[in-house]
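To the wet lab folks,

You asked to see what we're planning to order before we commit. Fair enough. Below is the target structure as tokens, and below that is the sequence we designed to fit it. If anything looks off to you, flag it before the synthesis order goes out.
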């Protein structure tokens, strides 16, 4: 269980804001599933990041390898070539915390050297074990996500919780402080609609594990499965999921639509801060 007496970056930002943090998604890729999130030039990426900050983003999450269903792995050198100039340019213009969305140790190290503050690893350190030592040495936050290829579960909530706790313990046993670890149940990653809904209904169970919890539901397929909307029409459904997450203690909401999410969080907070902070 995370030690709340000394806090990592995400935990301290949440404690200071007293509302869920809004993490803006910025893709420097040509193939992310939501076309409006793609920024293929350094200047457009920087403009998007600054716009997100102005719209209320607490963290900018930058990725250079799409993880949409059926994605093709990008070589580390190409991923870094897409990522590092954008991080450096964004860091020149703002001090907003930057999260780097990568599974690769060499890319994570280069991003941290360029000014990133957080590593967001969809493989929870299983794709490249060097991530553990890098996070330890850089004293940065790490986001650990659950992912698997096939949506086969006996008890999806138990299995995802068990996996995330085991990965957090692997980092802690290697010397990464618990207060620098955030957990992400990985909505949509090897999960059908009913699995995603079950995980969301049990958000508070993940919160009770003692680590900050990140929810990444933005415009995903399961939102469309429920609402019948295509990716461009999933904002309302996404806001509903994120409001539910906020009401049940999630500390980070990873989204494409920063202003709308920030406004939703502010409104929930105004209605009663105890509703969005437990």
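Sequence we intend to order:
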């Amino acid at each position: 269980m995370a030690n709340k007496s000394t806090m990592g970056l995400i935990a301290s930002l949440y404690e200071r804001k007293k509302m869920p943090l809004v993490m803006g998604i910025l893709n420097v890729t040509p193939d992310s599933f939501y076309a409006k999130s793609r920024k293929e030039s350094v200047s457009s990426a920087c403009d998007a990041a600054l716009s997100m900050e102005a719209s209320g983003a607490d963290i900018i999450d930058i990725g250079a390898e799409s993880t949409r269903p059926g994605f093709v792995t990008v070589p580390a050198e190409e991923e870094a070539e897409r990522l590092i100039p954008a991080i450096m340019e964004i860091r020149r213009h703002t001090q907003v915390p930057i999260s780097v969305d990568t599974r690769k140790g060499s890319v994570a190290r280069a991003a941290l050297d360029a000014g990133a503050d957080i590593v967001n690893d969809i493989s929870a350190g299983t794709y490249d074990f060097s991530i553990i030592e890098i996070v330890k040495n850089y004293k940065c936050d790490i986001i650990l996500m659950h992912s698997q290829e096939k949506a086969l579960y006996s008890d999806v909530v138990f299995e995802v919780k068990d996996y995330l706790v085991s990965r957090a313990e692997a980092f802690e046993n290697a010397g990464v402080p618990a207060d620098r670890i955030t957990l992400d149940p990985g909505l949509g990653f090897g999960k059908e609609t009913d699995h995603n809904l079950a995980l969301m209904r049990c958000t508070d169970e993940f919160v009770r594990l003692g680590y900050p919890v990140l929810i990444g539901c933005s415009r995903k397929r399961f939102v469309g499965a429920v609402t019948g909307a295509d990716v461009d029409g999933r904002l309302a459904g996404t806001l509903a999921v994120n409001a539910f997450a906020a009401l049940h203690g999630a500390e980070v909401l990873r989204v494409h639509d920063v202003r709308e999410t920030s406004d939703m969080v502010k409104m929930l907070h105004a209605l009663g801060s105890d509703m969005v902070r437990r």
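Structural context that might help your review: The domain at 9-271 is CATH 3.20.20.20 (TIM Barrel). The two ends are 16 Å apart (CA to CA).

Thanks,
Computational group
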